[in-house]
Structures are given as structure tokens and as C-alpha cells.
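Pipeline run #58 for the internal structure catalog. This entry was flagged by the ingest filter as a single-chain record with no existing model, so it goes straight to prediction. Upstream metadata was stripped on purpose; only the residue string is passed forward. Reviewer on rotation: M.T. Logging verbosity set to normal.
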Amino acid sequence: MQVVFFFFYPLQLPHVFVNCVEYFTSRLLLEEILIQLQSCCSETEQTSHVPCDTFNDFVRLFKQAVVSRELQDQTLYIVLDRAEQLREMEANILPAFLRLQELTDRNVTVVLLSEIVWELFRPNIGCFEPFTLYFPDYSIGHLQKILSQNHPPEYSADFYAAYINILLGVFYMVCRDLKELQHLAVLNFSKYCEPVVRGEANERDTRKLWKNIEPHLKKAMQTVYLREISSSQWERLQCDNREPGQLKGLSAHTHVELPYYSKFLLIAAYLASYNPVRTDKRFFLKHHGKIRKTNFMKKHEKTSNHLLGPKPFPLDRLLAILYSIVDNRVAPTANIFSQITSLVTLQLLSMVGHNDQLDGPRYKCTVSLDFIRAIAR
């Protein structure tokens, strides 16, 4: 959305902005583009609903709208936010958007905004390759400026900027995601204001404000990215001065947002921890032949592996299971190994032994079956 505010609005370029999560079907998406196109030049004119069932209808109506709005001599921009959601629609939608200029014979540019790489939602049927532009992470100065714009009206801008400075000083090394930092800023601001509300300190007494907020930020650090509890439950814990784990009915790591391959890595780690090595051939090979059931296997069939707990496994076995459960081919790149390290940092995996072992590192999965089921879904 910030691309629209900082680029299209100042230059007054004709554009349409649609969030693909909000308009989650192809019909809703195409109709919203046509509705916004009607009002893109004349804000006062009343827009009407435009029924559009297929992409052929969209191309025809799009041409008519461009002519009626006298946009033939201008470049029209269609911005699709969260573009990875197009994978859930009909197979022809994404390739058609990539060739929209050719199909409509109009000067139109489609901009796809996404937080995942293009290779993960490129259609299998083939399509026109878009020009890919990668944006770097926000610097701490950019984050400070963006987050400080959301200060509550009852407090001064300097007071809220000081709070954001403290928040970034704690979380910037582990979290640089703008949405997550905005969530943390809203969640902990009331605790930061408590000494001011009680009259124990003024807005410039940063030392007292810091001493009051420091233990609560450390608690929040333990659950960054992990939606273990709701915001209302977290505020209740803050008032009671209890630990997050003391809330009844709380299951650790119930909801977590992980990168695409990290989810498969975690599932592969769980399978490696709770399945014996001898069953890998039976479970993960298509043509494994006949497996003879020995007396040793029958003896242990009655014992649940979940009762015995997770077993350590080597890195090679983890990657072998990963390759068998992922549909597309996965290259053993530095990105995959860094995601394994991130899972260890998040305590979803634990490393057994030391890094200097000659036979390579060994890991153990630390999450429950319910958590893996949620990830698999």
C-alpha cells in the first residue's frame, strides 16, 4: 500500500489498487478493478456494479472503460497486493494478467506486490516472465519514521517517538518486519504510559518509563512472530504480572507464521524425530519393494513413538525427507540452511551435540503433533 502512497499519488498516475486477500475470487477481483477504473478519473461520478464472469468479459469491459475515461494516451497501472493469492484462483488468471497489455492492446502495466519470491508462485503451465524488483529491508531510521506516524492524539509526537526508539532498540536485531513491529508497538504502548497515567512520571522522564516497560518487552521478546495468545489475553497477563505460560488453556506455539520451506522443514523434522530410520524407505519411496515384518518390528509396534519422545536425527536425513515431501525440486542452497538455523533459534528444533562434530549436526523436533497438524493444513 505504501508504494501507492509514495509513488502513484504524488505523480497523479492513473492506477487501480486491489488487495487479493480481500477480493479472493477471480470474479470479485476483476469486478473491483473495473469499478475502480470507472472512478479513477472522475471522483464525483457514481460508479455502478459491473458483472464480470470470465477474463474474456474483463478484457472487453476493460477496453470500453479505457476509451470512456479517455485513457488511451496514458499508462494505466493495476497494482495487485498480496499477489501470491492468485495461485488459489483459476489457472489462467495469473498468466492472463501478465499478458494483459497484449490482450487488451492498451498501454497498461500490472504490478504484482508479494512477500515471497516469484519462483514459488510461477504457474506450471508457463507464462510471460515479469520484471522482478527486490526491495531491501527497512533500515532502523525508516522504521522509526514510519512507526512514529501512528502516535495517539492524546500524547505528543516526541513522547511516542521516544517509545518507538526504545521498542526498536529491543526488537530490531530479531525482527525487522513492519507489520510485526506495528503489532508490538500497539500491544505494549499502554504499559509504557502507565507511570504517566498514574502521575508517577512525566513524558520526558525516560528513565522511569524504561524501567517500567523493560520486563514486559523481555516477555514479548519470547513470543515475537508467535501468536501464542490473543492481544486481549496478553493485556490481561500484563495487568496480572504473570508469565505467558501461566494462562490456562494455552498451548505453546499454536499459531505461527513461517516461511514456505520452513513449514516443510518442520514437518520433515517431526517425521524424522518420531519415525524409525528403517521406515523411511517404506514411507518416502514410491517403489520400495516388499518390506518384511521382522519379529523386532512386531515387538515394538504396540509402543507409541510419541510416548518415547523425539529422537535425534542427522541433517542428511532431514533433507532427504524434505525432498520427498515437497512437490517441486528443492536445491540445497544457503537459504534452506539458514531457515534450519532460524527454526533452532525459535526453539522449534533443538540441536543435539556440538557444531564441531565430524559426522555433522544432529537435531530434534520440539513441537507437538497438534502444532504439526496446524502447519500441514
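catalog note: The first helix runs from residue 2 to 11.
catalog note: The radius of gyration is 26 Å.
status: ready for reviewer M.T.
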